[in-house]
Design a protein that fits this description.
Length: about 240
Amino acid sequence: MDTERKQIYVWSRKIRFFHWLNVIAITLLVAIGVIILNSKTFGISTDGKILLKTLHVFVGYVFALNLFIRILFGFIGTTYEKWSKTLPFNKKFARELREFIQNKQPTYKGHNPLGKLMVLALMTLMLVQTVSGLVIAGTDIYYPPLGRYFAESVAIDKNKLEDVKPYSKVNIDESAYKAMREVRKPFITAHIYAFYGLIFLIPLHIFGVIIAERRERSALVSSMINGYKYLPVDTKD
């Protein structure tokens, strides 16, 4: 006989909006990024590469703003928007994880313990991508928020910053340009490794959702569309 279940509103519109906008932005960023990394193989011209990087940056702005808003709501939001409900930092987490492994607590209103660990990992990598991406945008195609600063740092005549353009040597101090490229190296490394990390974790996240859906039978997938889970009446928070 099936356990009696009730419909419970878990994921707010803000959380669902963040999730699906994030999915779209990351998909576009990965697709454009892969093309940029393989631009020589695809025979893409310099102008084409600049266009792709510009598109990558604009999608990156959407991604970064969406992430910033989500981080903010983690502090000022309600219920399952809050970090205390989402990240594995509360005092009860070790017990939650142990009970989850022992299958003593089969269903959860919010994220299960492994889900909380996944959220932490994904949010950390996305934050690294955001910070490193904004620095790279400034050093590569001189886009905000740091583009003007880096353009001034490499310009011979700082009154003609409009002449400082991607892949152009006009009004560029070679030694300053080399120094700027050295500054950006660790950010490039962080960006690439965070990219690989996301490529690894995203399929793992999807797999985990499928397993959790089969284990909990709580309409986990559809809950990220309509906000509602179907949980046993005695489910604990």
